[in-house]
Amino acid sequence: MEYRKLPKGNEMISVLGIGLGGIQQNSDEVIQTMISKAIANGINFFDLCCGAKNVFLPFSKAIENCRENVYFQLHFGAVYDPITSEYSWSRNLKEIKDTFTWEMQILNTSYVDFGFLHCVDEINDFEELQKNGVFDFLKTLKQNHIVHHIGFSSHTPSVANKLLDTGIIDLMMFSINPAYDCELGDELGIGNYKERQELFLRCQREQVAISVMKPFFAGKLLDAKTSPFKQELTIHQCLQYALDRPAVLTCLPGICSLHDLEELLSFNHATKEEKDYSIIGKFNIESFEKNCVYCNHCQPCPRHLDIGLINKYYDLAKVHDQLAYEHYDKLTKKASDCIHCKHCDNRCPFHVHQSARMLEIANFFKK
Ligand code: SF4
Ligand code: SF4
After folding, report:
1. If you take atom 7 of ligand 1, which residue's CA is the nearest one?
2. 285 in a domain, yes or no?
3. How confident is the model at residue 367 (pLDDT cuts 50, 70, 90)?
4. Which of 1, 248, 265, 286 has a 20 to 30 Å separation from 275 between CA atoms?
5. pTM across the whole model
6. How far is it, in rounded angstroms, from Cα 312 to Cα 314?
7. Across residues 116-130, what is the average pLDDT?
8. What is the DSSP string of 22-47?
9. To test the ligand 2 pocket, which listed residue (294, 301, 334, 336) has its Cβ within 8 A of the most ligand atoms?
């Protein structure tokens, strides 16, 4: 399992996490077994916006002997029906406080790793959370070290940018997959490629990490019949695609069964070829055309340049990410080492003129 460090913290988070929004139809025993198995296989990150209330107890039992090694996001605004126990959402401070008190008790914990403003998709959502005192409640919990980090979940770049403007966000949960990034998703894939890419670059520049929801577009990308590309992608390709976006810390697909968990864990043993998502370059999607998506499909470079990484640092440096300059400086092979052999130009399915871009990148960093 690969672990990535939270930029504003010391937590090392597994690149594979689990969203608990679809696990609720299993028995308590099976849920506990699934969580324990995930932890035993190196997963240490969970999204606790649960499909129903019954998930909390088996989750709590699964983490009771390893609480300090497990991290989770708790959503302030996700509430559970007192009769059916099913998930719903609320902006009512009392209801949110009562849910939080119950969650802390059942989870048998004194702290929350990530306290999230839940589902902030419209600017009205954020205004309401401020007006109703939910944002202040979360900030007070952070001051009292009960919540370690503040985050939010959203599907909307313009609203996410407003949240980032507050300067107190450490983690953003956002829906990322190739369909959403090229405007072929559903109503939750908001923003065009440029807006979304700018948001991810901003997050990286401001050291706000991203946890990814819907990496498989609710499973639609995994089946040619439901994929907007009319061709299936594998879970390995979708996960790698999401993990290669700037600022991404972890992916949190939902799992419904032990079989789903095993499939997710198979990512750890997948080969580079199995994770290669450059096939999307062949789908003739205008948004991706001539944009480097950092996939490294154009390897091998005879000069051993990490072409994807060099391009990522370049994109970040262009939006004034100081760390990107430092990271670029540390590379043993830089754009200036390119001999313009054009091997990458011929290999790139996105038709990026990479040899020319290397010249541009070398000149940029020389300045
Ligand atoms: S140049 Fe093309 S193949 Fe190479 S990393 Fe960029 S997008 Fe991928
Ligand atoms: S053109 Fe430059 S970056 Fe591309 S393969 Fe050749 S040496 Fe490597």
Report:
1. 292
2. no
3. confident
4. 286
5. 0.87
6. 5
7. 91
8. S-TTS-HHHHHHHHHHHHHTT--EEE
9. 301
C-alpha 353 to ligand 1 mean position (Å): 9
Query: What's the gap in Å between 348 CA and the centre of ligand 1?
Result: 5
> What would the two tokens of residue 191 be?
């923003």
Same domain, residue pair 179 and 309: no
Q: Do 186 and 329 belong to one domain? A: no
- H-type helices in 70-122, by residue range? 93-107
Residue 282: pLDDT band with limits 50, 70, 90 = confident
Please state the atom number of ligand 2 nearest to the C-alpha of residue 354.
Answer: 4
Q: The domain spanning residue 60 has which CATH number?
A: 3.20.20.100
Domain around 359? 290-366
Residue the block writes with tokens 């091998």: 300
Strand ranges in the chain using DSSP code E only, listed in sequence order: 3-5, 12-14, 18-19, 45-47, 71-76, 78-80, 87-89, 112-117, 147-154, 171-175, 209-213, 248-251
